[in-house]
Design a protein that fits this description.
about 350 residues, 2 domains, 5-stranded parallel β-sheet, Rossmann fold
Length: about 350
């Protein structure tokens, strides 16, 4: 442990994150309420939190990643061409399953990001062994903002500034969508069903997908469901009779599976041809990753194409260039825009 010269002691509350600095060390209270002391600079980081891995990329410190879990990826074959172009070292970095303490220790990391809902015991072990481990608990937009700012503060300098810029961009997009839909009568707001990895697997009201629907100006027909993904029967979906069905950007379900099925023909969304699958280039936009900024805009545009004024193609091109350092091809922009 290097010696530290006391410089400043400050206690700040910002979006639920408490932090203070002592010389080259920053102390943060993570989303599990644990105080984590991180020595800067952080040169080697492991993210066993499949969502948090994308925070590192967006904050400009993805090049310091030595091991990562990636939400929605359990093999290289599941990665999109865009993902492989973006992260050419994915095969060497990617892990899945439960993290192993000994394997992470062997990587000689300066910091670990973990999922506070699944990795509490792992985080405690790592911390006891002297490895700073930040736990994230994210299932809402505000919690994502907090986790991004918290991670940026752990790295400091440019990462912290990029985190602030990202949350400002998110707020700008949300405000524009709210303004565009301000005069839309409540009775005209689309009733939306969000489908997961099977046609009868439905996002509950507790999930991030439901918040995206709300932010995009829709109403989730399954908002009363609790917990995680719920398995329902077709009779329940017929009772809900959604105006729009949105399919998650992972799993085998395709719009044609519903549009071509006589069993679904009586559902308003199927009858009107309003069954869409969310696109995916890198991270799934329906999860609390930085791309959910685009996920809200994509969904609002899908629900109200005549009302939403932001240019999805332009916003996507700017987002990936600014936060991932990636210039999208015309084909990738076409995919996002549904063209």
């Amino acid at each position: 442990m290097r010696a530290h010269r006391w410089i400043v002691s400050a206690l700040v509350v910002a979006c639920g994150v408490w932090w203070w600095t002592f010389g080259d060390t920053v102390e943060v209270v993570d989303q599990a309420g644990e105080t984590v002391r991180v020595e800067r600079p952080v040169e080697r980081v492991a993210s066993v939190y499949g969502i948090g891995t994308y925070y590192l990329y967006a904050l400009g410190v993805g090049d310091r990643l030595v091991a990562g879990w990636y939400v929605g990826l359990k093999s290289l074959s599941q990665a999109s061409e865009t993902m492989l172009r973006f992260e050419p070292e994915l095969e060497e970095l990617m892990n899945y399953g439960d993290p192993n303490v000994e394997e992470i220790l062997a990587l000689d990391v300066d910091l670990v990001l973990a999922d506070g809902s699944q990795h509490a015991a792992f985080a405690e072990q790592m911390s006891d062994l002297g490895v700073p481990t930040i736990q994230c608990l994210v299932e809402s937009l505000d919690e994502m903002r907090e986790a991004i700012r918290l991670t940026g503060e752990a790295f400091g300098d440019d990462a912290s500034e990029r985190g602030e810029a990202l949350t400002a961009d998110l707020d700008r997009v949300l405000e524009r969508i709210r303004d565009d839909l301000a005069d839309l009568p409540e009775a005209d707001r689309a009733r939306v069903l969000f489908v997961g990895t099977s046609s009868l697997q439905i996002a509950s009201g507790d999930m991030y997908q439901t918040e995206l629907i709300d932010l995009a100006g829709g109403q989730s027909v399954a908002g009363d469901l609790i917990g995680s993904w719920n398995e329902v029967n077709l009779e329940q979906i017929l009772l809900w009779n959604p105006d729009v069905i949105v399919i998650a950007p992972y799993g085998p379900v395709q719009p044609s599976d519903l549009l071509d099925s006589p069993d679904w023909a009586a559902v308003a969304a199927v009858r009107d041809g309003r069954v869409v699958r969310m696109p995916r280039l890198i991270a799934p936009m329906d999860t609390p990753v930085p791309e959910s900024l685009l996920g809200v805009l994509w969904l609002a545009d899908a629900l109200y194409p005549d009302l939403v004024s932001l240019d999805l193609r332009g916003e996507a091109a700017a987002f990936y260039a600014d936060y991932y350092g990636l210039d999208l091809t015309d084909a990738e922009l076409d995919l996002l825009a549904g063209e």
